[in-house]
Design a protein that fits this description.
It is a single chain. By secondary structure, the chain is an all-alpha fold. The chain is built from 20 helices and 5 strands. The chain starts with 11 loop residues before the first helix and ends with a helix. The chain folds into 3 domains: 112 residues, Peroxidase, domain 1, CATH 1.10.520.10; 105 residues, Peroxidase, domain 2, CATH 1.10.420; 127 residues, Alpha Horseshoe (Serine Threonine Protein Phosphatase 5, Tetratricopeptide repeat), CATH 1.25.40.20. The chain has a 3-stranded antiparallel beta sheet. Strands 1-2 form a two-stranded antiparallel ribbon. The protein is 47% helix and 2% strand. It binds protoporphyrin IX containing FE. The site of protoporphyrin IX containing FE has 24 residues, from helix 2, helix 7, strand 1 and helix 8.
Length: 405
């Protein structure tokens, strides 16, 4: 996943882990529902007037919050609450959309193309009216009406419907009951295979009209059945049932598009990505060689790079990188000759001294103390460099820092 300059400084892999821990834990496996939250926030879009869509995170407000179609979705938004607090630079709108994408990946599906840049509305003024999401009791005409309004064609409607390869219906929420596949936590093309291979019949029960298989365990909604009843839809169902790779490719593209409906252009993964300037490339190379402690190469790249620049995804500068690995001469060059600011804190709040202290690089610690590092700076765990050294059993380093303070 690429990031451009207007993207927030976020370590994507770390954010993914946080989302994973929030959605998948001993209490729950909330990936299907996270994916549905994201789809319902995008699925309100109307291309005629640009209203609705994932921007604004309007599902927090009336009337959207109490749209019947959104029953039961607030639980995922609450699950993501702590992630939201930890990453205040990301909007809720971005977090819901991102969580939906990574949930698909966690379930074995493709990672849809994604970019940050959505903002949160402060009230429900821009909420779309309720009733824009599809009604499962209807057929092909209704599907076209709803999805064409968002800007999707037949092929995209079928690909997106493959989202029902995971999750299930809950009678208490929607009046429908059951899962579409035998592995509802695995994202694959079995939804399309089931549509074609199983003999579906109306379910004999008191709930909403739905279809069931001969063993009365799985379900298909009337809108799902419309995909095989309508000849133009059916062609795509057949293609996806036969070719999972094609399904993943088309689903990924359509879901990525769904996630940036109603959003500023910066959220559009297909928009042109500005190419990195020569200076940015030199900066990246400079930090890379600092990490390896290659003094000769550092001197060479320093001629063209902005040596003070921090890495956008981690907030770390060359001093962090050299200090982490204990490269004494590289740290001396950076701190004393190039005068890099030793008080720069990365996204975890660590200064270069935190890094050196954690690993007990005593000589590097001394150089950073001499360079005037502020000893009171705390990282996101609330630790100063000295406390961190004690935590990691580097008593000599802790003493050295204590003496300097
Ligand atoms: C084509 C029109 C669609 C209709 C009529 C529809 C309808 C429904 C209904 C009635 C439920 C059951 C809700 C419940 O009882 O908890 C449901 C669940 C679900 N839908 Fe759809 N849906 C549609 C499209 C989509 C799309 C485009 C996606 C994603 C790409 C999607 C993903 C899901 C998922 C993952 C669940 C399961 C959630 C859970 O396990 O709690 N749906 N859908």
């Amino acid at each position: 996943m690429s990031q451009t300059t207007n993207q927030p400084a976020v370590n994507i892999e770390a954010l993914k882990s946080e989302v994973r821990a929030a959605l998948i834990n001993q209490k729950s496996f909330a990936c299907p529902i996270a994916m549905r939250v994201a789809w319902h926030s995008g699925g309100t879009y109307d291309q005629a007037d640009g209203s609705g869509g994932t921007d604004g995170a309007t599902m927090r407000f009336e009337p959207e919050i109490s749209d019947d179609a959104n029953a039961g979705l607030s639980i995922v938004r609450d699950m993501l609450h702590l992630v939201q607090k930890k990453y205040p630079q990301i909007s809720q709108a971005d977090l819901w959309a991102f969580a939906g994408c990574v949930a698909i990946e966690f379930m074995g599906g493709p990672m849809p193309p994604f970019k940050f840049g959505r903002t949160d509305d402060s009230d429900g003024k821009n909420c779309p009216p309720n009733g824009r999401l599809p009604d499962a009791a209807q057929g092909a005409d209704h599907l076209r009406e709803v999805f064409n309004r968002m800007g999707f064609n037949d092929q995209e409607i079928v690909a997106l419907s493959g989202g029902h390869s995971v999750g299930r219906c809950h009678a208490v929420r929607s009046g429908f009951d059951g899962a579409w596949t035998n592995n509802p936590l695995e994202f694959d093309n079995s939804y399309f295979k089931n549509l074609l291979e199983i003999e579906w019949k109306p379910k004999d029960w008191d709930g909403n009209f739905q279809y069931t298989d001969p063993t009365d365990t799985l379900l298909m909604l009337p809108t799902d059945m419309a995909l095989i009843e309508d000849a133009a839809f059916r062609v795509h169902v057949e293609k996806y049932a036969a070719d999972q790779e094609l399904f993943f490719k088309d689903f990924s593209a359509a879901y990525g598009k769904l996630m940036c409906l109603g959003c500023p252009e910066q959220c559009d993964p297909s928009a042109e990505v500005p190419t990195a300037s020569a200076k940015t490339i030199a900066g990246e190379e400079f930090r890379e060689v600092a990490m390896h402690g290659s003094l000769g190469l550092m001197r060479r790249f320093a001629k063209t790079a902005d040596v003070h620049e921090v890495e956008p995804t981690s907030g770390r500068n060359a001093l962090h990188k050299a200090a982490f690995w204990g490269h004494i001469e590289a740290v001396r060059y950076l701190a004393t000759e190039l005068k890099l600011d030793p008080n720069v804190q990365d996204l975890m709040g660590d200064t270069a001294l935190h890094d050196a202290a954690r690993f007990g690089h005593a000589e590097v610690v001394q150089i950073l103390l001499d360079a005037g590092t502020d000893l009171h700076l705390t990282n996101s765990a609330g630790m100063t460099p000295r406390v961190l050294a004690i935590e990691y059993g580097k008593d000599d380093v802790a003493e050295r820092i204590g003496a300097a303070g």
